[in-house]
Amino acid sequence: AQSVTQLDSQVPVFEEAPVELRCNYSSSVSVYLFWYVQYPNQGLQLLLKYLSGSTLVESINGFEAEFNKSQTSFHLRKPSVHISDTAEYFCAVSDLQGGSEKLVFGKGTKLTVNP
Amino acid sequence: EADIYQTPRYLVIGTGKKITLECSQTMGHDKMYWYQQDPGMELHLIHYSYGVNSTEKGDLSSESTVSRIRTEHFPLTLESARPSHTSQYLCASSDLAFGYTFGSGTRLTVV
After folding, report:
1. Contact pairs from chain A to chain B, CB under 8 Å
2. Shortest CA distance from B30: residue in chain A
3. Which helix (H) or strand (E) holds A56?
4. What is the DSSP letter of A98?
């Protein structure tokens, strides 16, 4: 069964610093990869996704993630974070074998941006 | 506007009561899901449906039940609530090309 590992449960950074949130998944022939963000007391919002094509995907608010098949990773990066980026970030994988669309989530990384 | 709606947002209820958490989506997605999320923890799939009259249990065992009589509606029911059911319940629907769309969640507290 597919599994997702988010190596850091908490990442504190200062405003305008770069950040990387790490995500690794167990190997599979074909997968779709997602990052979701959850603000306090809210549901999950899709941040970005990799389905096919370019291995570098970007969100509208400056985040990017790179699909690395050989390392089975999909790390999330932002060159300069804002206070408003403080949230919980979840990496998720959809294993396409068997036609399933079920998402498997990592345990989440809590990003705290300090002034 | 296409969206997914969950009601209520917050619910505090006594032990032994029957409750139904509502979830509706306007996107016409066939696939819908219920996830359970404890505070600061990961999401666990408890139920999913691939279409009308199709329901399956997820990876995490749950005493709740679901039904899918209409495409847009996927309610979750607890026949007899217990304090161990206290959690956040997130409903989602999916189109693989666009990923999952999540509702705002229902935060349930059983006292």
Report:
1. 53
2. A101
3. strand A56-58
4. G
